[in-house]
Amino acid sequence: MPALYYEVKPWNISVTLVQPGFMRSDAFEKVPYTNLSGQAFADGDHPYYAHYHHMDRCIASCSFRRSPHRCDV
Fold it and tell me: Could you report the per-residue pLDDT of 27-69, keeping only the tens digit for each?
């Protein structure tokens, strides 16, 4: 991104970087598990058990604990 900024600066062209990410929202709380994903989340021996638990913690930390920020070049 910084390289593009300097490359087009002589022509007075603005460059903006948009990085979509998580927003503070309870949307993930409203998404129901399917029968299979619910079983995987509940069964410690299921091959996807760790995946669901890691994603659950990741979504919780990204969605609710991060404050929004803006970065300028």
Answer: 666 767 788 888 888 898 999 888 888 877 777 666 554 444 4
The sign one gets for the Cα dihedral 54, 56, 59, 60 is negative
Residue 33 lies in a domain: yes
If one counts the domains in the chain, the total is: 1
List the domain range (segments joined by +) for residue 67: 19-73
7 contact partners, CB below 8 Å, separation of at least 6:
none
Pair 22, 59: CB distance under 8 Å = yes
DSSP reduced 3-state for 24: coil
Distance CA 17, CA 73 (A): 9
Helix intervals (H) in 1-73: 2-8, 35-42, 49-64
